[in-house]
Write a sequence for this structure.
């Protein structure tokens, strides 16, 4: 998992699209801005909360209280029974992989499927990479997310 040293910031350009029925019964979009979110600093509060949650989960993982699978499930606020259904495994089997002891017995094939579910590479279950704010990176995944190429360069804005 790659962790940037600088927290994401709320983008005031964000828009919300609402749909309403017209007289013909057809839906038509109506674009609206999120000015209230900006005024109340809700966007940055969201990113700050996510950063705190990731630090809590990372601490639990490093202490052996949870597995990387549990970290991703909780970080993405997913329901464990839903994850088991999406993975086409029993809930009992999933619960086994939520502990470090159970995680140690997981197959590469199943790790690959979890990586696809969480939209990460298999390697992200095994490492944390902390990047300074002046580092840009690109990630390329190969062979169903088993192999990852990570390229890091100094940001052009800091040169």
């Amino acid at each position: 998992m790659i962790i940037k040293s600088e927290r994401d910031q709320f983008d005031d350009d964000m828009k919300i699209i609402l749909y309403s029925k017209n007289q013909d019964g057809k839906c038509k979009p109506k674009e609206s801005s999120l000015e209230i979110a900006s005024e109340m600093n809700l966007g940055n509060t969201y990113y700050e909360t996510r950063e705190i949650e990731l630090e809590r989960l990372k601490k639990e993982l490093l202490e052996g209280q949870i597995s990387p699978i549990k970290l991703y499930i909780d970080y993405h606020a997913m329901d464990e029974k839903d994850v088991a259904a999406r993975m086409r495994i029993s809930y009992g089997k999933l619960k086994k992989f939520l502990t470090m002891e159970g995680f140690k017995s997981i197959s590469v094939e199943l790790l690959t499927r979890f990586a696809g579910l969480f939209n990460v590479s298999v390697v992200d279950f095994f490492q944390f990479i902390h990047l300074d704010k002046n580092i840009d990176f690109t990630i390329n995944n190969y062979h169903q997310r088993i192999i990852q190429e990570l390229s890091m360069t100094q940001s052009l804005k800091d040169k």
The domain at 39-130 is CATH 1.10.260.40 (434 Repressor (Amino-terminal Domain)). Strands lie at 2-4, 15-21, 27-33, 129-131, 135-142, 147-154.
